[in-house]
UniProtKB/TrEMBL annotation:
Residues 33-157 form the Bulb-type lectin domain. This is Bulb-type lectin domain-containing protein. Residues 1-26 form the signal peptide. Keywords: Disulfide bond, Glycoprotein, Signal. SUPFAM superfamilies: alpha-D-mannose-specific plant lectins (SSF51110). It comes from Hibiscus sabdariffa. Coiled coil: none annotated.
Length: 307
């Protein structure tokens, strides 16, 4: 056993130890976030990543906004301005976190966001039990679970302007548009699965949030004479189908003839209510030779926004 051997072994071990924490940061523990973990809003903060790295939860500075949005975004899509799948929202406006704010997963309240002086800006509402851990899922859903793994809160239940594959919207659920591309305040349009099962797109009266009569699009999925024909949920499935599921299990697809290129797993997908009132399904190739990668439209409704 020469001295040289053992010192090079020591050296290798030392290198390994240096490398380990870096790979641990990149992987974030299978998307798992433990109680007590926190993120701070800075320009170079690393987010909580899903296992594949496709989705990230954290602070994102968007446009000229004076602060950071607590949000979920498609992390592998290049570009400084990320496509957001979700952002924290309250009272008609996005939650803007000033530089140095901190979000922490707590047992009592789930996620709690505080500004640098410690004032609470936002929290996830969990009531059934204490949080045990959270997961940034590869589907783009951020879920807070109890120690027994019961679901306590999930971003999929609080959609903003976007739905993702595997996301379901129940009756009375809604999407609302932004003011503009870079202004995340609540805009003029709403997609709502009404209590009667009808899915409607309409303009909203902002202070009251009531939809003006005469939606400019509706699936007509309601039947007051026979409930089983009425819509029950809006589903975005993994294969890229977007449909109202009637109580009788029949599907009413929103896409008219247009279909996603296959295999669906090769594309990121989202369905977004854009600020101009158009609801559209988009796809983006996960892998391909760089240049012309962009979000492309699969279908959009209404067909002609001008009419
Ligand atoms: C992620 O979501 C999928 C689909 O809903 C689910 O089957 C899986 O259990 C989730 N993973 C975790 C770690 O929660
Ligand atoms: C976004 O739009 C709202 C409503 O028009 C306005 O009050 C707010 O100041 C705008 N925010 C930014 C950052 O421009
Ligand atoms: C309701 O409609 C379904 C078809 O979706 C039909 O099979 C059923 O008989 C109807 N029920 C009544 C009470 O009319
Ligand atoms: C991607 O699409 C946006 C919006 O349609 C467009 O402004 C932009 O120029 C496109 N980028 C590329 C590289 O095609």
């Amino acid at each position: 056993m020469g001295f040289a051997t053992s010192s090079s072994t020591t050296c290798m071990l030392f290198l390994l130890l240096l490398l380990l924490p870096l790979s641990a940061v990149a992987q974030t523990n299978n998307g798992r976030v433990d109680v007590g973990a926190s993120l701070t809003a800075t320009n170079d903060a690393s987010p909580w990543l899903s296992p594949s790295g496709d989705f990230a939860f954290g602070f994102h500075q968007h446009g000229n906004a004076d602060g950071f949005l607590v949000s979920i975004w498609f992390d592998k899509i290049p570009g400084e301005t990320k496509t957001l799948a979700w952002y924290a929202f309250g009272n008609g406006s996005p939650v803007l976190a000033p530089l140095g704010s901190r979000i922490q997963l707590t047992a009592e309240d789930g996620l709690v966001l505080r500004n640098p002086s410690g004032e609470q800006l936002w929290k996830s509402d969990i009531t059934l039990d204490e949080a045990g851990y959270a997961v940034m899922n590869d589907t783009g859903n951020f879920a807070i679970r109890s120690r027994n793994s019961d679901m306590l809160w999930q971003s999929f239940d609080q959609p903003t302007d976007t739905l993702l594959p595997t996301q379901i919207m129940e009756k009375n659920g809604r999407l609302f548009s932004r003011q503009s591309e870079n202004n995340f305040s609540q805009g003029r349009f709403q997609l709502r699965l009404q209590n009667d099962g009808n899915l409607v797109l309409g303009a909203v009266n902002l202070p009251t949030n009531l939809v003006y009569d005469g939606p400019y699009y509706s699936t007509g999925t309601y039947d007051t004479a026979n409930e089983s024909n009425s819509g029950d949920r809006l589903i975005f499935d993994e294969a890229g189908g977007v449909y109202v599921l009637r109580k009788n299990r029949e599907r009413v697809y929103l896409q008219t003839g247009a279909i996603l290129p296959t295999p669906a797993a090769d594309f990121y997908q989202r369905a977004t209510l854009d600020f101009d009132g158009v609801f559209a399904q988009y796809y983006y190739p996960k892998r391909s030779a760089g240049e012309n990668r962009n979000w492309s439209t699969v279908w959009s409704i209404p067909d002609n926004i001008c009419s």
